[in-house]
Amino acid sequence: MAAAASVPLRVCNQEIVRFDLEIKAAVQDIRDCPGPLSALTELNAAVKEKFQQLRGRLQELEQMAKEQDKESEKQALLQEVENHKKQMLRKTTKESLAESASNITESLMGISRMMSQQVQQSEETVQTLANSSRTILEANEEFKSMSGTIQLGRKLITKYNRRELTDKLLIFLALALFLATVLYILKKRLFPFL
C-alpha cells in the first residue's frame, strides 16, 4: 500500500519539478524576447498558465501530505510543500516583474509610435513651410517686377503730362500768331491809312 501511495507522490513531485523548469525557461524567454509586444504577451500568458498548473500540483502534494499515516513523512512532505511555495513566491515576483517589463515595453512602443507620428507631422510642417517660403519669394519677385513696371508707367505719364503742357503752349502760341495775323490783315484792309 505504501508503494502504491508513493507512485502518485513521485508523479506529483516530477510534475512540480517539470513545471518549475518550464517556468524558468519561459521567464528566460521573456528576458531574451526582443519584441514585438504580442510575443511578450504570449510568453507572459504561458508563464501564468504554468504557475496555475504548479499551484494545482502543490495543492495536490499538500493534500497527499495530510493524508500520510506516518507523522515524519507527513512533516517532510509539508516542509517540501512550504519550500516549493516559497520558491513559487520568488517566481511570482519574477512573473510580476516580467509583466511589468511587458507593460513598460508596451508603453515604450506606444511612446515610440507617438514620437514617429510627431516626427511625420513635423516633416509635413517643414514641407509646408518650405512651400510657403517659396510662394512668398515668388510673390516678392513678382512684386519687384510689378514695381519696376509701375515706375516705368509713372515716368511715361509724367512725360506725357509735360508733352501735353508743351502741346498746349504751342497751340496757344500758334493761335495767338494766327489771331495776330488775322488782326494785322484786317487792319491793313479796313484801315489802310493807319
Automatic annotation (TrEMBL):
It is found in: Endoplasmic reticulum membrane. The chain crosses the membrane at residues 169-186. Residues 44-94 form a coiled coil. CDD domains: SNARE_SEC20 (cd15865). Residues 100-190 form the Sec20 C-terminal domain. Belongs to the SEC20 family. PANTHER family: BNIP1-RELATED, VESICLE TRANSPORT PROTEIN SEC20. This is Vesicle transport protein SEC20 isoform X2. It comes from Apteryx mantelli (North Island brown kiwi).
